[in-house]
Structure formats: structure tokens, C-alpha cells
Amino acid sequence: MRAAETLLLMRPSPLGKVPSFPAQPPESPVTQSPTLSPAEERATLSKVTWRLLPLLFICYIIAYIDRINVGFAKLHLREVLGVDPKIFDSVYGFGAGLFFIGYFIFEVPSNLILQRVGARIWIARIMVFWGIVSALMMFMKSVPMFYAMRFMLGAAEAGFFPGVILYLTFWFTSKERARAVALFATGGVVAGVIGSPISGGILEMNGLGGLAGWQWLFLIEAIPAVLLGFVVLFYLPNGPRHASWLTDAEKACIDSRLEADAATMTSHREHRLSAIFTNGRVWLLCAIYFLLNVGTYGYELWLPSIIKSFSGQGDAVVGVINAIPYFVAAIVMVLVSRYSDRTGARRGVVAVAAFASAIGFALSAYFKNPILAMAALALAFAGLKSTIGPFWALGTAFLSGTAAAGGIALINSVGNLGGFFGPFVVGVIKDKTGSSVVALLFLGAALLAMGLLALTVPNVAGKPTETKN
Questions:
Q1: What is the rounded end-to-end Cα distance, in angstroms, of the chain?
Q2: pTM score > 0.90 for this model?
Q3: CATH, residue 72
């Protein structure tokens, strides 16, 4: 195969689709223009960042609130579901984790469809569907219904996060992705800052209009997902060549930067879909992401209950306290991702952040003082969230084209099984021991193992970027 053909196959199209050779003319031809100056390149990158990331950031906030608000509803669901108190933690942990089974089954097909039909339509479809399912959770009356609705919510949301990760590869080079991913993924922690007090406040609406507080919780927090789905449909371009707010020169600049990035990584990247299933690095990243999600969701889906147990406060106060670790994590993860992009360090940053999280979990299990325990929990959460940007920059550095679509989805879907395993094991441990101490040590052990595995990942990141914006 000639070099030109190889480069064409390696570079993602605006829809994330690997074109057959020879390539067909693009739908919106870009007129070649004089090369932009470094200042103009920085301005173009800044324009892309500000046009795309705020919307995706807000969408992820809503997605995350709808994903974890069951942690607040849990405080009121035992009577509704009619579960024996002795086994309720296990029932809740299993049901909360079923979200990720639905996610796992449908995620890879969802990302491949996104690659074919385009990000705009598919992300909009995902958001509308998950909003509808989230609202329907207000009608739960039994354990089987709880299990079914959590599974359906995961199936409806499947493909959103990896779809956006893939979408960012259409705009940003491998050297810029840790910051771009972190700015997007920060929505997950901002969701905790914003959503925690809101969720606690909504629960106080108990009895209003004949609905329980937990029913208002699912209904009110589902509406923004449906509305934002239509915003995405009309606003989000499929790729640079479909962005009416870019000039031809700016489109050509983005294309050339991605081509240059692909050329420097040619010897390292896989672009065949079949290659991801036999690539040891992909499966290693799956294992690392699995452990990350054991810690993340074992923590997030139980945090309101843990806070209520040691604080003894009502729903509204628990919501405010619950926001503290998210606020700390939002700041730390952006700073860490900036450092990772500036230095080019990926696996080392992931490992150190995971070790810091493990220490935080261990200290939170040891401390009896509520303030010190909360500080340790904030450290644990900031550490595990800080791994996300560098992790995905590492994961996308050796995949392109169809392999990127399938590989990102595979890593995310297999890894998110940790979101089932973590909450379920925490529930079983709490039922067996009657406390959170062993559960917190278990989560710390998962992050320790994650850090050790991260140090074994081959590092293919390039030199740090000189681009500032």
C-alpha cells in the first residue's frame, strides 16, 4: 500500500468513518488556503474548544446526574421496593450496578453506529432516550422493576461517553486530548457539585402533588436530557468540515494538524477493527478502566448513604456535604490534565493519581473524626477522577479510524463493568459487616492495583505540545 493510501486510512473523517480508497470528495469541500500563523492556529483551537466543549460538558453533567441520582433515591427506596433491611444494601448495590450491564452490551454497537451516521444525530438520540427512561423510573414499585429500569437506563445511555471521546479525536491531536477529555469529563464531577444539593433539595418536595420526593427526583432531573438532545441535534457539527463557524482556512488548518499527528503516530497505531480484540494493550487498558470504575461507582453510588450515616443530617444537608469531594476533584483533575499535556506524561500521572486515591480511601476508613474522614474521601475522589484525562489520551494514542471507534467503546464498556462490580461488592460488604470500613479498604485496594497496572502500559505519547490556548 502506498504511503498516501496508508495516511488516508489512518486519519479519521469528519464522521469518524474510515473511507475506502480512493476517497470520495467531501460533502463540504475545503478550499486550500495559505498556512495559518501560529497565533491564528492557537485562535482556531481556542474557537473549537469554546464552541464544542461547553455544550458537551453540560450534556455530561446531565448524564451523570441521571446516572448517580439513584444514590439519593436509595435513602427512600427500601420501603417502596418492599425489601428486608438485612439484605437491602445488597439489593440496592446489584440494581444500581445493573446500569453498567446494559451499558456494556450496547456500547460497542452504539459507537460503531455513531461512526456511520454521525455524532450529531446519534448523540442527540442517546440523550432523548436516556431522558425518557430516567423519567420512567418514577414509576418503580418492586425490585424487578428497579432492576429492569436500571438496566434500560444503561442501555439508553450506552455510547454517550465513548462517542464523545471518539468525537474529540476528530478535532484535537493526541497531544491535546488529555486536557480536552478532562474538560469534558469534568462535567461528571461538576454534576456532583451541582446535582448533590439539587437532589437533596428535590427530595424535600416529598408529598407535593401527590408524588414522593424520590419520584420528583427522577422526573425533574430527566427533563434537561431530552431538551439538550434537541440542542445537540441542531447545534453540534459532525466534524470540522461541517462547522459553519469555521473559515476554509481554519478547516484546512485542523485537517493538516490531524494529518501531521497521524503521520507521526503511523508506526504505533491500529486502524483495523479486528486488531482491537487481539491487542494486548487494549485489554490492559480495559483492566485499568475496570478498576477505576470499581472505585468510582463503588464510591459515588454509596457516598450519600455513607455521609448520612456519619453525619446524621437530613437530605438537604447531605446533598451539600456530598458536593464537597466533587468540587475538589473538579479543580484537581483539570490541573493534572494540563500537566499531563504539557509534559507528555501519561501512564506515570495515571499511576500517581491512582496511588493518591488509594491512600485517601485507606485514611477515610481509619479516621473516626467526620471532618478528617470527609477530607480523606475528597482526596480519594480527586485522585481517581484525575486519572481520566491522561488515561484516555494514552488510550487514543495508538488507535485511529474504525479501530478508534471500536477500541474506545470496548475499553469503556468492559471497563464500566467495574461500575456493576464495585457497587454490588460494597453492598454485600456493608450487609455482612454492618459498616463502611471494609468497603472503603476494598475500594482503596482496587485503586492501588490500578496504579500498578498503569505503570506497565507501553507509553506511546509524543513530545509535549507547544500549543497554548
A1: 38
A2: no
A3: 1.20.1250.20
